[in-house]
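Fold this: Fec operon regulator FecR
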Amino acid sequence: MTRVQAGTKGILSFSDKPLGEVIATLSRYRNGVLRCDPAVAGLRLSGTFPLKNTDAILNVIAQTLPVKIQSITRYWINISPL
């Protein structure tokens, strides 16, 4: 289940969700494009993250899963396999 309490607490929680779904949800709280490579979209993620710094969330994802986060521009981020 994905829980978003952004309006009241600014928190995003996931329990065993595919990375593609996590990125799609996160993209609603960030300007620009977040692109998740289909090769890693099925990786599973659980966690609770503060929405005040979406870059920090992406860094945690890169440290937790076998993915790399590539900033093409300030507003275009690719998530792909290592």
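The first strand starts at residue 3 and ends at 4. The chain has one domain: 3-81.
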